[in-house]
Specification:
With about 120 residues, the chain is an all-beta fold. The protein is built from no helices and 11 strands.
């Protein structure tokens, strides 16, 4: 099984990005998918998660999680970004319902870098 993130890059303050998390080897409809981020020198932070119950655990109004079961892909829409959002953003999946702990996830991606700067 594999989890691959994409869509990161450099964005100006106030801008938006949509990250993608494409999985293989399992199907998203039976898994809770979370987005995390880790900035240099800081602990990894759980942002939001989606599972069979739908949209769950919304940590930030600016970050919206969604998924396309047919494409086996989850997304993180990030709006009104600011320099404090600069971090490596990772996706992870756990069988069943969402959990917020990174170490408890069944599958984890390597992440995609997001840099917010003018």
């Amino acid at each position: 099984a594999q989890v691959v993130e994409s869509g990161g890059g450099l964005v100006q303050p106030g801008g938006s990005l949509r990250l993608s998390c494409t999985v293989s080897g399992f199907t998203l409809d039976y898994y809770g998918v979370s987005w995390f981020r880790q900035a240099p020198g800081k602990e990894r932070e759980h942002l939001t998660c989606i599972d069979e119950r739908g949209y769950a655990d919304p940590m930030k109004d600016r970050f919206i999680i969604s998924r396309d079961i047919a494409k086996n892909t989850a997304y993180l829409q990030m709006n009104n970004l600011n320099p404090e959002d600069t971090a490596n953003y990772s996706c992870a999946a756990v069988a069943g319902l969402c959990i917020t702990a990174w170490i408890g996830q069944d599958y984890r991606g390597q992440g995609t870098q997001v840099t917010v700067s003018s």
